[in-house]
Design goal:
The chain is of the alpha+beta class and about 280 residues long. The protein has helices at about 10-20, 25-30, 35-45, 50-55, 95, 120, 125-150, 180-190, and strands at about 25, 60-65, 75-80, 85-90, 105-115, 160-170, 200-205, 210-215, 220-225, 230-235, 250, 265-275. α3 packs across α7.
Length: about 280
Amino acid sequence: MTNHNLIQLEDIFTYQDKGEWPIVDSHLLSTTYKNRWEMADKLFAELDQDLFNKVNKKVVHDGWQDENIPEKSFSKKLSGSAFSNDDDFMIGPNDWDGRNPKIGDYVQRRKVYIYDWTKDELQHTTEAIDYFVGMHEAFKPVLEHYLYECYSDQLDLIEKLLYKLMIIQYNTPTATEDNRTEHRKFSTERFGDEHCDETLGGLHLGENYTEFRAKNTKSNEWEPIHLVDDKMLWMFGEDAERSGLIPTYHGMQHNPDKDLNTRYSIIFDLSARYKQ
């Protein structure tokens, strides 16, 4: 098994008391998975309905609309027997305003979910799919470490665990070179709401440019978290409170660099289903 930089529970509590972050360097991110953003780009470029149908033996189509603004915020969801894919849409800054003639602008967030069973259930595969299935296998031991290190007092209460790797793309399909920064800012504001996850915890495996931020556990101030240089961060979900740990409230803050385009982020969630 590849050696990972892992943090012990005693140090975790110290970090939270001091308002410091459990961030470590990752050898795997700097070597085997150094090209993860190029592979994420390749994955989303090739992932269409035809490929999804080839990969998954069973496919379920679903949709979602915001009950308050269904015409402005909606999703297309594909659940497969091997992996799943969500496409979330918000109408763009021009059409959102409602005072301008509609032009059909929108921003998009796409997610691919890789699970424990993905490798065994694949009916067809590609280089990019195999790459992220391998990432799931490579980093799962990190989640297992934090499961037993931080949540051992909950194990008897848990019926089932879910290890879900999420590859996330934030895209601005209708932007031009002149308004791309405006569209990115709009996307960040719409999709980057402040929250804590409904999980035990999650391993943040970085982003291709910095927009991630989190609330300091001591000062309660929001801080940018730099995860672009092969760093990984352990985040605590709301179920971590059962073990006396402070959930990681996080969100996104717009990066105004005009040279930036599509944003990618990779997060590996650990969730529990509790016994009734």
